[in-house]
Amino acid sequence: MGDWLLLVFAALGAGGLNAMAGGGSFLTFPALVFTGVPAIAANATSAVAVSPGYLGSALGFRRELGQLPRARLWQEGGVCALGGVLGALLLLVTPAKVFAAIVPWLLLFATVLFALGPALLGRLRDESVAPSTAWRLTGLMAVAVYGGYFNGGLGILLMALYAMTGERDIHTANALKNLNSLVLSVLSVVAFAWAGVVQWPQAVVMMMAATAGGFWGARLARRLSASTVRAIVIVTGVVMAGVFFVRG
């Protein structure tokens, strides 16, 4: 019962964090590992648990997406779908001991990326270049593979990529980020499910809790300052990375 309560509260918190600023995987992944789920299965199950939030985020930007050429949406969506599957397959062929060893570094990388996100994106927007389809698709593939392998920091990477490849409208970039996160997340989850590594009882319970957490998190976001929410996410990421380093 203690394990289930931990998973529920972690998913509630993850849904809230994702609604406010992102970083929900800093809670769901460690909670699954701490309750005895192997690292690779925990990563796959965590991806399933937080996936419903991407749909809601994408629907929230229907207007911006409707203004973009359909050919571009299909092209970038196809790249993200392929990258998400490749990243998921890469995770599945990674030896469990190897993945367990790099988890602390992945968490630390995602935390640093999240902490530097506003400064990085602001600088990139100031130094934006002319749009480059070839570079954008190449970078999108790399980011999608990372997202299929390990979801932490995915949103910041996508926003940085769009800024570097000439996307000057922040709302359009955010809309594309949410849509492509949804696409690669769904495809990677399908790959994990096909491989049989998802712990479905935990995943279903955590999906419901994360959805509820996202609902209340959206309300709470109006009461807390952005800096407070970001500080919570950063501290959580640092603590979780430190715990995994100590655990070896």
Automatic annotation (TrEMBL):
Where are its TM segments located?
Answer: 40-61, 73-93, 99-122, 134-163, 183-216, 228-246
Give the matching Pfam families. Answer: TauE
The record describes its membrane topology as: Multi-pass membrane protein
Listed under GO cellular component are: plasma membrane
**What are the entry keywords?**
Cell membrane, Membrane, Plasmid, Transmembrane, Transmembrane helix, Transport
Q: Where in the cell is it found?
A: Cell membrane
Q: Does the keyword Ubl conjugation apply?
A: no
Tell me the InterPro entries matching this sequence.
TM_pro_TauE-like (IPR002781), TSUP (IPR052017)
Which protein family is it in? Belongs to the 4-toluene sulfonate uptake permease (TSUP) (TC 2.A.102) family.
The protein's name is Probable membrane transporter protein
**Organism of provenance:** Vitreoscilla filiformis
